[in-house]
Amino acid sequence: MKNYLPFLLITAVLWLVSCNSDKKDEADAFITELEGATEAPAISEETINDILMQIPSPLEISMLMRESGAEYDRTILSDPDNVSKFNTTFKRAINLGIYGTDLMYTNIFSQNQEGLSYIKAVKELADDLNIGQFFDLRLVGRLATNNNNLDSLMLITTQNFNSINRYLQETKRANLSILFLVGGWMEAVHINCQMSIGNPEITALAERIGEQKMILENIMLLMSFYAENDSKSGISELYEDMKQLKVAYANIQITYTYAEPTTEIIDGILMIKDNSKSTVHITPENVIEIDSAINIIRNKLTS
Amino acid sequence: MKFLKYILIVTILFFAKEESEAQCIPSDHVKTCIPKLVGGFSFLKSYEINGRDGRLEKVEYSYPFAKGTQYMVNICSADGGNQGLVVTLYDASRKQLATSVMNGQQLSAIVFNCQSTGIYYITYTFDNSTSYCGGSALGFKR
Predict the structure, then answer these.
(1) Which residues does chain B have within 8 Å of residue A255's beta carbon, measured at their own beta carbons?
(2) Chain B residues lying within 8 Å of A278, measured CB to CB
(3) The CA-based dihedral angle spanning residues A90, A93, A94, A99, taken in that order and rounded to the nearest 10 degrees
(4) Tens digits of per-residue pLDDT, A249-300?
(5) pTM recorded for the entire structure
(6) Using the beta-carbon criterion (under 8 Å), do A14 and B117 form an inter-chain contact?
(7) Angle A171-A173-A177 (CA atoms, 0-180°, nearest 5)?
């Protein structure tokens, strides 16, 4: 026993050293969580992150608008000069998402000058939320002033937003991540609705709005976990407001028929042809109803 | 003398453990993968693949794919190529749609021409991998 004593002591010391760094991380996370003013929900971090991953990038929806032939309309975007009005963490996080979508929309339609206003607004809100390090204002600004850099600009912007999102989740601030993603998603649906109302002949726009029903269901599920524990940060109020959006979506039907896919290899890449079909049943009246519900929520968030 | 031996062995074991856990840096492989989204695909998401030295059998992510859109998922492993990594795509009801191993060939990417909107699952597994580490990028085009 005497012979093993030094061994046990050294092992214990090394184990303590090893644990100490973990404990420091845990302590930091705990403090951050307290600052978030929202109690942790009764679901695992893994489940939260799984649902967050299922919120689509606004980039995809914006791209559809351009390719469908709809024209750029600046009046439907949130005013970038309103940044100073957002003086709570809740408003900053949700408007960061809203401005992020507006920025992508201006990027896709090559509206460089207006894009710069949104870049500035995004950077300001990100700084206020202590995540400004993920947004290289100089680089994005430089790319935004030249139309030939559109691909690079989209890539950098998407990477920045992905990094912000990952960082928030890693630092146990998933509540902010939810707000950021929900804000971005809601703005994308809002822009899509506005463009669909102005261009009812482009059925792809209305279909894309209808498809968001499944995303909304996931968002509502996620927010319900937070709303149960939250009375301060604003999530519970937003959750209540979003119930009206859910009502507006209640009439949308999505049907799905499965068929085996077919595959072939071309140049070392597996090409999969989806033979399943999904159909969205949505009318122009449904779009107007969804748009109205979104506007009520959006006006509260952006004022 | 015995005491010194203990110090040496425990120190080696301690640092060997730290080293093996620090070896996998998926973000590096993600950086390699993003520029490999060629053919007009726009970058959407990046996925880190860390099999924790074989302790994890699979790493899974999910994303809503939209009708009328093509999605490319590529994989980059620690060898600089795609060896040892397999990507498999499942639909919302967990039906397997395709996998990147075809006829014994390990492919570097899959392209899914989506005709049915829904949540899809992108699963990464390991096949004779030594690093259990890699990255992946998801791109889209209409």
Answers:
(1) none
(2) 67, 115-118
(3) 150
(4) 999 999 999 999 999 999 999 999 999 999 999 999 999 999 999 999 999 9
(5) 0.82
(6) no
(7) 115
